[in-house]
Amino acid sequence: MQDKNRSSLPRWWDADSLARRLPFLRARQNIMANIRTFFAVRDFLEVETPALQCSPGLEPHLKAFRTVLEDPDGGERTFYLHTSPEFAMKKLLAGGLPRLFQIARVFRNGERSDTHHPEFTMLEWYRAQASYTDLMVDVEELFTAVGILQPVSRLTVQDAFLRYAGIDLLSTVSDPSDPAPPPDCLRAEASRIGVYTGAGDRWDDVFFHIFLDRIEPSLGCDGPVILYDWPASMAALSRRSVADPRVCERFEVYLNGVELANAFGELTDAAEQRRRFEHDMELKQRLYGVRYPIDEAFMDAVSCLPECAGIALGVDRLVMAVAGASRITDVLWAEVD
Hints:
The structure is a single chain. The protein is an alpha+beta fold. The protein has one domain (15-152, 223-330): 2-Layer Sandwich (BirA Bifunctional Protein, domain 2), CATH 3.30.930.10. 36% of the residues lie in helices and 21% in strands. The protein has helices at 4-7, 15-40, 86-94, 132-146, 157-165, 184-192, 203-215, 270-288, 296-302, 315-323; strands at residues 45-46, 52-53, 65-70, 76-81, 99-107, 119-128, 153-156, 225-231, 247-255, 258-265, 308-314. The strands form two sheets. It has an eight-stranded mixed sheet, with helices on both faces. α2 (15-40) crosses α10 (315-323), α3 (86-94) crosses α9 and α6 packs parallel to α7. It is globular. It starts with a helix and ends in a 14-residue tail after the last helix.
């Protein structure tokens, strides 16, 4: 049944609606061209990988679209629309490609707001023999190439919590190797500054209550900011910092309080990656009653990865920032009806 609230909205293809959005869409066209030029002159290969994957991405809170692949002999296999092209691109990296990028359509279920759309465009790039600090320079140069001319600042997650919330974040974790730190110390800090937490909240939940209430709205208000060195328990597919085991080689990029990108100094330890995936799927099962399979071919690729770094950047949000659009649908040629 059609959503009555959505059916009452102006249609995205009406002449007036399209005319209003056309300046944003022309800006999008220019930005896409500049992105491809940026990577071409730096000797990156543009690749294209399938949206259909046996595993869609294993972040605990992302919901994938499930489908069934029918084989010619009548057999059926469960597949998913990818939430990111990361797994396939890392396989190519493991196969020997030194620099690659992709502008991919990706899919995330249950997400729709002024800055979210169930189908959107992701730019990802990977560099062999590079660090996450090398990618910070890439971001700075790419932003200049697409028309973001403000200088890009850098801020650690620890310093962000101190600056905007008055909390010594890393002191609330007694064992940096614990994938699920006890939440009591951080919950006490949240209570002290008047941020709500739930009785059953995990450490990560409390982190995001504070982050979303006190920190994220202030990030990038004076120009883009790279928020780096995330707590080790939030490493995802990044490696732990050699300089400080309490944190991992991960950064996110923010502009005007909106996240634009997420980057990793990539983990190349397959056993550790499997432990993280299994932990995340146990969490997903508890929270949402569902789990996704581990891509065993990807696990083989992880063990073959060179030292490398990679980043995913939301193209639609980038266009919004450059063109001054307030809603993601302003910069989409067509919406999911």
